């Protein structure tokens, strides 16, 4: 995957431009991560801020939208192509100001870009 595409929804993700994903449940390849707290785009780097709840001690995680493999508006779910452990190991998200920090966003993008590609399973 080209680095730029980590910040863009895949054409086959089911995402519709302008769609509000706030409140949707975020599901990794091995279980639920949390809920979309907000969507943001700074410097052309679109991402979701996911409230992980008690799973990661109340922390939030920043996930580039290029990791989204599916959006189900009826079920209010967003599926991402990584594991819970991979999200937990990503550069730590501490404050909202980091969503406007080009260096922090670049480090997050680089981390997710380097993850091994996932096989998608047919339902």
UniProtKB/TrEMBL annotation:
Biological process per Gene Ontology, one example term: photosynthesis, light reaction
GO cellular component: plasma membrane light-harvesting complex
InterPro entries the record matches: Bac_photo_RC_H_C (IPR014747), PRC_barrel-like_sf (IPR011033)
Name under which the protein is recorded: PRC-barrel domain containing protein
Organism: Streptomyces mutabilis
Taxonomic lineage: Bacteria, Bacillati, Actinomycetota, Actinomycetes, Kitasatosporales
